[in-house]
Amino acid sequence: MRDDRGMSEHSNPSALAAIEREILGCRACPRLVEWREQVAEEKVPRFAHETYWGKPVPGFGDPTALVMIVGLAPAAHGGNRTGRIFTGDASGDFLFAALHRTGFANQPTSISRDDGLRLRGAYVVAVNRCAPPSDKPTPDERDRCLPFLVAEIGELGGVRPVVALGVFAWDGALRALAELGHHLRPRPRFGHGVEAVVGPFTLLGCFHPSPKNTVPAGSPKR
Predict the structure, then answer these.
(1) Contact (CB, 8 A) for 130 and 33
(2) What is the pLDDT of residue 13?
(3) Which stretches of the chain score pLDDT less than 50?
(4) How far is 111 from 184, CA to CA, in rounded Å?
(5) pLDDT tens digit string along 53-95?
(6) Contact (Cβ atoms closer than 8 angstroms) between residue 42 and residue 98
């Protein structure tokens, strides 16, 4: 239910802000802390003039969201640079253009935390909040970060569809929902377009919007 301001009666922006503060202060995974800070220090030539974020990346979006979008982790030179998940990389270019076309975003691009992007009805998160080497968190690193996703789902009381971008996000979302008491047996396998009803939630599988999935074979990749 929503009041006359469009706020979900279950939304709790102050609790979400508290979760964000916990995420920003997290140093639980030494390998990931070392990697994110090394990348932020060494940079790459095309971003050599920029100051990298180099910290955990919190979720963001509409606290009255109806839809949650779950990714794997920040990109080393995307979210780890800009401080916002899917911002400043090719995957985000595809994702935010799609969210804009469908009315969830006020603009089709996102290049920085302060570029004016606003989401309406959607909240974007990741299973892991630090950029991992080779985009591959370990199971232990996933599990140490998972409580943040559990807490966000719990506080975003209006969310029902959960869109998992790739198999890692699918697995993480199922684990988070199980922590909230919503178990599903047998465990559904990931697939693009697969739907699984998990308690009051509908988990939707979607290919990750990386260029390897979105750029046709033979096309130049950025």
Answers:
(1) yes
(2) 79
(3) 1-9, 219-222
(4) 38
(5) 999 999 999 999 999 999 999 999 999 999 999 999 999 999 9
(6) no
pTM: 0.91
Torsional sign, CA 148, 163, 81, 98: negative
Q: What is the DSSP letter of 210?
A: S
Distance CA 170, CA 190 (A): 6
136 φψ region: left (φ > 0), alpha (ψ -120 to 50), beta (else): beta
Phi–psi pair at 23, nearest 5 degrees: -60, -45
What architecture is the 13-212 domain classified under in CATH?
Answer: 3-Layer(aba) Sandwich (3.40)
Cα-trace Rg, the chain? 17
Q: Give me the pLDDT at residue 215, please.
A: 76
Burial class (CB in 10 A: 0-12, 13-18, 19+), 4: exposed
Q: Which residues contact 159 (CB under 8 A, 6 or more apart)?
A: 65, 66, 67, 68, 123, 153, 201
Q: Locate tokens 């606290």: which residue?
A: 63
